[in-house]
Amino acid sequence: MTGGGDRRLLDLWDRTGAAPMAARPAVLLDGLRQLAGLPADPPADRMSIGQRDRALMLLRAQLFGPQVALQADCPDCGQVFDLSLDLPRLVEEDDGAPPPALLRIGPDRISLRPPATRDLLAVLALPAPSRAQALLARCASTPLPRPLDAAEIEAGAQALALADPHADIQLATRCPACAAAQVLGFDIAASLWDDLSRLARRLLREVHRLASAYGWTEAQVLSIPAARRREYILMAGGQ
Questions:
Q1: Judging by beta carbons within 10 Å of its beta carbon (0-12, 13-18, 19+), is residue 15 exposed, middle or buried?
Q2: Do residues 116 and 201 both lie within one domain?
Q3: pLDDT tens, 86-140?
Q4: Whether residues 205 and 159 fall in one domain
């Protein structure tokens, strides 16, 4: 990455870290698309959660490699074991925009679009008991005829999950020690945030070493190509 790219990466790290947790995936996607020179349309906060996360998986594979290292704890024997997740296999099937889900409310059939980040942010501002119904109301093609009961809310949630499968990635695995089966959730935004944070902190360590050794500013250090920075760090007694 160029010096300008390094500065933009650190700016993205700052913006993402300052964003509410529910907004982070969209902030990451918009910022990483800009860094990679990819189109910014549609805005990430307007994409369905599954579309957004699929795009994040593709970018993660492009920027940091296709394999993601995971760690799991066996609930039966307590063994901690490592997994390797192949991102291209998760996203190899793409049917385009997810279809609307359908919810039956008495005689009515209501079409639901899969929710986007902006929908989640809107309902998170509401009291917890009202969030599920508010989300379904935002995603409905027509106004809901009445408040939903618990069974209808659950049916709506299941319909949305089926319509947008990349929104909730679940991985089936077995413990290598006792063969116990378990299902692990995978959060691509959290994984990518960890990748970005490791890279940002490495850049900050480079800035600190060279600023301490030579008195350069952050902007001056980041303007130096990465390979040349490493040589300066070695000459300054760094690792």
A1: middle
A2: no
A3: 998 888 755 556 667 889 888 889 999 999 999 999 999 999 999 999 999 999 9
A4: no
Give the gyration radius of the chain's Cα atoms.
22
Both tokens of 98, joined, read 């997810």
The strand pairing partners of 140, in sequence order, are 112
Residue 13 tokens, joined: 């790290």
Structural domain boundaries enclosing 135:
101-163
Instruction: Give me the number of domains the chain comprises.
Output: 2
Residue 46 in tokens: 């307007």
Token pair belonging to 189: 């935004």
Residue 107 has which token pair? 């005689």
* Lowest pLDDT segment from 24-38, 89-103, 135-149: 89-103
- State pTM to two decimals: 0.87
The structure tokens listed for 45 are: 């906060």
Distance CA 72, CA 172 (A): 11
| Total Cβ atoms within 10 A of residue 135 | 22
Contacts for 135-143: CB closer than 8 Å, 24+ residues apart: 136/103, 136/112, 139/112, 139/113, 139/114, 139/115, 140/103, 140/110, 140/111, 140/112, 141/100, 141/110, 141/111, 141/112, 141/113, 142/110, 142/111
SS3 131: helix
